[in-house]
Amino acid sequence: MTGSPVAAPPGAQENPSSAPAAAAARGRAGRVLRYIGGRLLTAALSLAGVVVAGFFLFRILPGDPVRAMTEGREVTAEQREELRRQFGLDQPLWQQFLDYALGLFRMDLGTSFQYRRPVAELILDALGPTVLLAGTGTVIAALLGLLLGVRSGWRPGGAADRVNTTVALFFWSVPTFWLGLLLIVLFASGRDPLPGLFPTGGMTTPGVTGAWDVALDTAWHMVLPVTTMVAVIYAQYLMIMRSSLMDEKGADYLTTARAKGLRDTLVRRRHAVPNALLPTVTLIFLNLGQVVSGVILVETVFSWPGLGRLFYSGLSVPDLGLVQGLFVVFAASVIVMNLVADLVYPLLDPRVRP
Amino acid sequence: MHSHHPPTVSALRRAATAATVPLLVVGTAAAPAAADAASPAGSTLTVAVAQQVDSFNPFTAQLAVTTNILSHVYDPLVSNDQETSNPAPALAESWDTSDDGLTWTFHLRDDVAFSDGEPLTSDDVAWTFTTIMENEAAAIANGSYVTAFEEVTAPDDHTVVVELSEPQATMESLTIPIVPRHVWEPIVEAEGDAFAEYTGEDLPSVGSGPFVLTAHDRGQSITLEAAPDHWNGAPGFDNLVFRYYAEKDAAVEALRSGEVSFVYELTAAQADALSEASDIAVNFADGKRFQAFTVNPGARTQDGDEFGDGHPALRDRTLRQAIVMAIDNQEIVDKAHGGRATAAGGYIPSRYTDFHWSPEGDEAVLGFDPDAANAMLDEAGYETGDDGVRVSPDGDRLELRMHVHQDRPDNVSAGKVIVERLADIGVEVENLTVDPGVLSDALYAAEYDLIFTGWTVNPDPDYVFGIHTCDALPTEPGTMQGDAYFCNEEYDGLYADQLREYDRAARAEVIHDLQRILYEEAVVNVLTYPDIREAYRTDHIEEGTLLTQPAEGGNIWGQDGYWAFWAAQPAEAGSGPGGGGPSTGVWIGIGAAALVLVAGGAFLVFRRRATAEDRE
Predict the structure, then answer these.
(1) Cα–Cα distance for residue pair A289/A291, rounded to 1 Å
(2) Total-model pTM
(3) Which candidate from B29, B244, B254 shows the least CB-CB separation from A216?
(4) pLDDT tens, A338-347?
(5) Which residue among B54, B245, B440 sits closest to A303, beta carbon to beta carbon?
(6) B33 and A302: CB-CB below 8 Å?
(7) Where is the Solute-binding protein family domain (chain B) (predicted)?
């Protein structure tokens, strides 16, 4: 309590001279609470909206899950009816929604039609692989983008900048699917004379056991998907770092730093970059939420057993239980990350403090 | 003041290098480890599958990939012969029927045991069938087989008696997987209403088939081990692994790299490219599937209530027949399937030699003949308007919608051909290439004129004929059992006859007549039987041991039975997947990674020196 910067020390109010200060502190605490409360309320409302939208959105999808699942199967009308009953599709829509919404309060995301398992279980199974792939890819892409962005932004228009931005924008505009397949053909399929260095898909080799071997095997399987992901997304980090560094370049404090006789690299590293990093850090936070939904294509090309591929497999049916559950989880991750960014940003940048 | 500073650039750079370099090194170093560990005990046949399994519960598993895998784990009572595809003994050595055709007695082999050592007896068979008859949740996968079952009994350990409510010629195709009662009865009782959600993940599985399901790495792979004591003989491979590839092109690359031994459902382009690769054999098999388009003949419910918005002129059989006569099936084979298909005759593909029917001689009234089609339409009063499009006698312009699956490239190409050919007889077609869900919605709402369809036909064709009886019409819009709103009294009579006819040759005659009616009514119009395309590595699997079904022009994947993967023998040692140490490629990879490491290290050293200079 006493360590808190906003709380007045005990007995302070008895001292008339500190009364205005205490009032100001109280006012400020109120503002902070209001800010946090407002953000939390917005997040909760967004989440509720997502639940409603997700439920009805996927029910507009064309096609019928039971017909799609039994397509080509020699089933009777009774078998179809039984499936409809099991999936709850024989209930009126409002009843289905009510069951779904009440289930969410019990952390029950429903049951997948095609996998016959609780959606929450399927999501938990697929979460690890996605976090591993998307996390590694994002960290590498961010570091690479920031590094090259600093180079580019410090001497915009220079040869290094032109090469950097051209290459980055080239990969940014390349279709993920195509790039992934190209990497497979070049580095995995072992066509003469190219050696097959990496696996064509999956996360592990069947039959590999032992923690160390599994870790090595997984890393080996990650190389191509991570490379694809990094190649496609690092441009956004590069460009934002480049432009924010360019904004800082003309700033007066840099002239001062130079006037002190500091070398150019020091001016850049100690003065310009730290300030230019602020918007970039925000971008990374905002991106974290979208990373999960952004890896759908990479996971599909490389048969990675993650959330993206789970979503893809659910959409074609449509496996309503699965896709609406994933939709809520994807949306929730974006909302939560936005919330975290909202709450963390004032800590990083005093100018936006409430 | 600067306590919250984010990391500086050199720190960032060092972190980036630190993060990337070890990843690459670890990655390539893992290669030999993986290659060593990837060879479990004995030989392995790896199959690339395109679908994820739904459930290992044989009472509920629906997806083709799962029923295929489970056919290696559980034996049926009756199977289909590898050489001919005709019904053949499996668990039942022989069977006989009573004179009224209502009592079927199956005599079981006495040398069959489940993988846990318990003998398989008639009690297991009777319990499996009875459970499907009595428990709705257990009828999800195979309920259609037992609709006419009255009672199933086991008078002794090796005899099963099935009492029927009416004769069923389909009894010789009883391919329901037989499960051990001592394992499944406690599960059915414990799960109760939740049985449908029991996915059978308690491995190893207990079955009597030539393989035992031992591992499932969800979304990645399924491992089966050979059951060496199977009554039909031990499989040639010790392990059978199904690896999941979401993208067919990636699966093809995995075949090239040797990560998998077999790939199925190839596109024509993939199959042709693989034909030229070394150590790979491509199998083109006669199709089990027919591709067709149906014409909306005026949708109605069983009570006769009309619904939907099909073009009214299509109720006229003459117009429907003219449409069929305007289309050259051989042109579709050539243009849409690159020649890898057979131009269709009747409804049943030509690989089923005795049930297949093809209109010939006097019967071939609807052969490709656009001039005759035009003459027919002129005579029937379809006058050609100023824009070249005909108008029906009732004054409706012949402007038809056609729904085509956008996810099937051969259908899309076939649709384009049809648009051109129908223009030749003054019919304008709006080509709607749509998502399968949109197509399905249009079909069930009867909001279509022409629509694509297709079925994979099983060795017993009863079901695909059943969907065109009047009973398959919807009770209310949207509930249709069939796929064409077809209803014809003569057809229904013949359909009932074929189901009662136990003599195969006589039944085939009736089945030919059914196809003749479908052909003449021109509602269900079969275009082609597309070939099946699949490929395998000859350095993993000894050529010629991957038996096809039937022996002539047969397929490997999707057999009725377990023949191919059971009979397959490993190729000469040393070249199989995961054999020996790391390949040359892996060593080159390690070299490349080492180079990156050295370069990265040099870079770091250089950076440190530069920083040191700054500090001076």
Answers:
(1) 6
(2) 0.83
(3) B29
(4) 888 778 777 7
(5) B245
(6) no
(7) 87-465
